[in-house]
Amino acid sequence: MKSIVYGHFTDEIDLLEAVKELQNKGIKIDDVRTPFPIHGLDNVLKLPRSRLPKLAFVAGAIGGAGGLLFQIWVFTKAWPLVIGGKPFLSIPSFIPVTFELTVLFAAFAMVIGFLVSSNLGPGSIPDILDEEVTNDHFQIVLSNINNTMPDTDLANALAATGALGVKNIKTEN
Amino acid sequence: MMHVSTVREPLIKGKKSYNDITEDVMAPVRAKPGKLWYAGITVSSLLMLFGFVMIGYTVWFGIGTWGVNRTIGWGWSITNFVWWVGIGHAGTFISAILLLFRQKWRTSINRAAEAMTIIAVMCAGIFPLIHMGRLPLAFFIFPYPNSRDLWVNFNSPLLWDVFAITTYLLVSVLFWYMGLIPDLGTIRDRMKSLWKKKVYNFLSFGWKGSARHWQRHESMSLILAGLAAPLVLSVHTIVSFDFATSVIPGWHTTIFPPYFVSGAVFSGFAMVLTLMIITRKALNLEEYITVGHVESMNKVIIATGSIVGIAYITELFIAWYSAVEYERYAFVNRALGPYAWAYWIMMTCNVISPQLLWIKKLRRNLAFTFVLSIFINIGMWFERFVIVITSLHRDYLPSSWSMYSPTWIEVAIYLGTFGLFFTLFFLFIRVFPVIAIAEVKSVARSSALKFIGKPVKKNSPEKLTP
Questions:
Q1: Residue B5 contacts A, CB cutoff 8 Å
Q2: Residue B281 to residues A134, A144, B1, B334, B342: CA-CA distances in angstroms?
C-alpha cells in the first residue's frame, strides 16, 4: 500500500529552501507540483535532462531527409516531368518543402514525445492531491515508496520546513 | 545574479497575488456571458453564415460570378488570402521569436495573439480553395499517388504554399494548445460543476503541475519556439514566391521575401492592437495588458513599418535603375495610373502613418493607437491589392489591358471571413483563458518586487505575500 505525505507553501522561494532542507535530512522527494515552472528546481531535484531535444533532432532529420528523398524520387524515378525546361533534379526548388517537412515532423515529435513521456493526454486522469496547486500552492509530495521512515516522521519533517496543510493519505496502488 | 533594470515599468500593474492573477484571467470563463458578447457573436455568426452562403453561390454558379477576368485572374480573393496570412504572423512572432529573445512582456499577449493567428490562417485558407473554382477537387493539391501515377509539381511555389500554410497552421495549433494545457488545468481545478471539471480535465490532458512535467514542457516550448521562428519567416517568404518567381513586372523582384515578412508582422501587430485594445477593456484586463505593452507593440510597428516603407522606395529605385522598360512602366503606372488612388492609400497608411509613433505620447495613447492600427490594416490590404491588381491589369499585350472591380459576391465572401474571425475569437475568449496564466505568474514576482521598489535577485528571499 502506498502512503503519501504532502504539504504546500505559498511562495516558490520557501519551496526551494524546503526541498533542500528535506534532501539534507536524507528524505527522497517524490514530486513537487507548482502552478508555474520554477527555475532552478530541476537542478535541486536532480532531474535528469530531458531527452526531447534529441528526439527533435532525430524527427526533424527524418522529416527533412524523407521529404527531400521523396521529391527526388518523384521527379527522377516515378514520373520525370519537364517543367519550364528545367532539369529533373532541381534541388533548390525542393528546399521549401524539405524545410517545412523538417519543422512539421520535429514539432509533432515534440508534442507526442512530451505527452507520452509525461503520461498526459486526452482522458488522462491525474492524481490531484490539492486543487490549489494549479493556482497558488507550491506542493511537496513524499511517499513511503522512496523513504523508509514512518509516515509520522515524514509528516513532521515536512511540517518542520514550514509547509502548510501537511496531510497523510493512503492509496491502493 | 540577474540584472534587472529599475527604470522599466512593471509588466503587470497592481500588486497581484498569484490567486488574483488566476481569478482575474479566468473571470470571463467563469462568468455568464453579457449582452455585449451575445450581440457580438450574433452579428459575427450571421456575417459568417452570409459569407458561407456566398461561397456556396460561387461554387454552384462558378467563378463567373466574380469580377475577375482573363487579364486579372487574381482579384480580391488572393488579396484577401495574402492579407489574412500576413495578419496571422503576429501571434507566432510574439510567442516564438519574442520567447527566444526573452521579451517577458509577450506573456500577457501571446495567448490571444496566437489564437488570432490560428483563426486568421483559417480565414486565409478559404480563399485559395474557392479560387480554384472546383472546390471538391481541392485535394488534388496534396501529394498522393493518383490514378494516373502522377505526382504534384514540387517545383511550383503554389505547392510550396500548400506545405507552408498547412505546416504553419498545424504547428501554430500545437504550440498554442500545448501552452494552454497548464491553464486549462487551472480552470478545471477552479470549476465547481462536475461536468465542467470533466470537460476541462479532458482538455487539459490531465495536467497536474509536476516538476518533471514542467521541465519537459519548458524544453518542448523552447524547441517549438525554435522551430516556429524560422517557420513564421518561411511562410510569408513562400507566399511572396507566388509572385516573385513569376515573370510579371512588379512581381519578380528579389526584395519580396523580406518585404512580405516585415509587412506581415507589421499588419499582424496592428491587428493584435486592434483586438487587444478592445479586449483588455471588455474583459477588465487593463492591469495585465498595460499601456506599456501597447507601447512595446507600437515599437515593433515602427520597426517593421519602416522596413516596409524602405522596401516600397527600393522597389521604385530598382525599377528605374534596372532600365527595364516594362519594370519602369509597372511602377509609374502604379503611382500615376488608373489605380493610383489605391497606391496612395497604401503609401499614406503604411509609410507615413506609422512614423507618427516616434512620438512617445502618441505611442502610449490608446485611442490614437487604435485608430492607427485600423489605418495600418487598411493600408496593408491595399498593399496586396496594389501588388495583385496593378501588376496584372497592364499586361505585356496592350490589347489585353483591362480593369477590375469586385462583384458584391466577392465583397460578401470577404466580409464572411470577418464573421468567421470574430465568431471564433468570441468563442475563444469565453472558453479559454485569454492570458497565459502560468506564464504571467512566472514573471509576476520580479514585476511585483520592482513595483514595491525592492532589488530583484535570482532566488531572492523577498516574499510576495507578507
A1: no
A2: 26, 51, 37, 41, 33
Q: Across the interface, do A100 and B160 touch by the CB < 8 Å criterion?
A: yes
In this prediction, residue B6 has a pLDDT band, given cuts at 50, 70 and 90, of low
Q: Which domain holds residue B196?
A: 18-141+168-451
Residue B269, amino acid? F
- Which cell is B176 given? 498554442
Contact A13 B459 (CB under 8 A): yes
Domain of residue A144: give its range: 2-45+127-150+157-171
Is B170–A104 a contact, with Cβ atoms under 8 angstroms apart? Answer: yes
Q: Which of B212, B221, B457, B465 to mutate to test the interface with A (most CBs of A within 10 A)?
A: B212
Collapse the DSSP code of B297 into the 3-class scheme (helix H, G, I; strand E, B; otherwise coil) and give the result: helix
CA A89 to chain B, closest CA, distance in angstroms equals 10
Between B240 and B33, name the one with better pLDDT: B240
The number of domains in chain A is 2
- pLDDT at position B8 is 66
Sign of the torsion formed by the C-alpha atoms of A160, A161, A166 and A171:
negative
Q: Are residues A132 and A167 in the same domain?
A: yes
pLDDT confidence bin for A95, thresholds 50/70/90: very high
SS3 A8: strand
Residues B418, B40: Cα–Cα separation, whole Å: 12
Band the pLDDT of B428: cuts 50, 70, 90: very high
pLDDT at residue B75 greater than cutoff 70: yes
- Residue linked to cell 477576368: B69
**pTM of this structure:** 0.91
Distance from the A152 Cα atom to the nearest Cα atom in chain B, whole angstroms? 24
A7 shares its domain with A57: no
Same domain? For A113 and A137 the reply is no
Distance CA A147, CA B170 (A): 44
Q: What is the pLDDT of residue A73?
A: 92
* Shared domain check, A57 and A40: no
- Closest residue to B459, CB basis, from A37, A40, A53: A40
Residues B124 and B81: beta-carbon distance below 8 Å: yes
Confidence at residue B2, expressed as pLDDT on a 0 to 100 scale: 47
Same-domain pairing of A61 and A101: yes
- Total domains in the fold of chain B: 1
Please check whether residue B152 is in contact with residue B233, taking contact to mean a CB–CB distance below 8 angstroms. Answer: no
> Residue A122 falls within a domain, yes or no?
no
Confidence of residue B269 (pLDDT cuts 50, 70, 90): very high
pLDDT confidence bin for B5, thresholds 50/70/90:
low
- Which among A32, A40, A90 has the least Cβ separation from residue B155? A90
Inter-chain touch A128–B189, beta carbons under 8 Å: yes
pLDDT tens-digit series, residues B338-378:
999 999 999 999 999 999 999 999 999 999 999 999 999 99
